[in-house]
Amino acid sequence: MPEPAENDESALADAPDADEAEAADPTAALIAELRSRRLTIAVAESLTGGLLTAELIRIPGASASVTGGIVAYNTELKKSLLGVDSSVLNVHGAVHPDVAVQMAVGVRGALAVRGVRAGVGVATTGAAGPDAQDGQEPGTVFIGVSIGSAAWSVPLKLEGDRQSVREQTVAQAIQAVRELLARDDAE
Questions:
Q1: Beta 150-157 vs 140-147: how paired, if at all?
Q2: Closest listed residue to residue 43, CA positions, set 31, 32, 56, 34
Q3: I need a labelling partner for 82 at 20 to 30 A (CA). Which of 15, 45, 120, 165 fits?
């Protein structure tokens, strides 16, 4: 098949533009945004067990922005690796908005590169099911996001089986970081 000529407008018309490509792949859009801002992102995961980090590094060139991920599935690791306050864990358990925020803040320092904290921290904690955890029903999820000196918790109530809840959490975490980066721009 012959190559289209350089000025072949029909070939260019069929190619998706950057906005369409970003809409089709929110993760690619997030990595592009992080790269354009020269920001790094560090990930702390509990219920997603590495899925969020894997999704981020699926994108070619992600190494410029993704410092790494910590899977702190065991509650003790949330304290020892991420600095989550033991009193919060003792009172509320691991499935709590404050835990998500503290994980997101803590992972930025835990995965510092050459002494420089990650610009963005994102964390997932929740009950994927099939059983309740810490008194929280399956599908109860909290995403923590830390950017600059601010931190937010995004509460979710998801439906579906264990794998579905985990996959939805990854998608929602990507979206939350994108939205909070956009909000950070507006302020």
A1: antiparallel
A2: 56
A3: 165
Q: Is the model's pLDDT at 13 over the cut of 90? A: no
| 120-126/41-45 β-pairing | parallel
Residues 56 and 62: beta-carbon distance below 8 Å: yes
For 9-186, which CATH class?
alpha beta
Amino acid, single-letter form, for residue 183: R
Q: How many CA atoms lie within 13 A of 55 on its CB side?
A: 23
Domain boundaries, the chain: 9-186
SS3 content of the chain, % helix, strand, coil (to 5): 45, 20, 35
* Residue 185's pLDDT band (cuts 50, 70, 90): low
The closest alpha carbon to 122, from 58, 186, 59, 172, belongs to: 172
Confidence of residue 92 (pLDDT cuts 50, 70, 90): very high
- Summarize the confidence of residues 98-121 as an average pLDDT: 98
Rounded Cα gap, residues 155 and 45, in angstroms:
15
The number of helices, as runs of H, and strands, as runs of E, in the chain is: 8, 5
Return the residue matching tokens 């970081």. 177
Find out whether 107 and 42 touch, Cβ atoms under 8 Å.
yes
Phi, psi at residue 153, to the nearest 5°? -120, 135
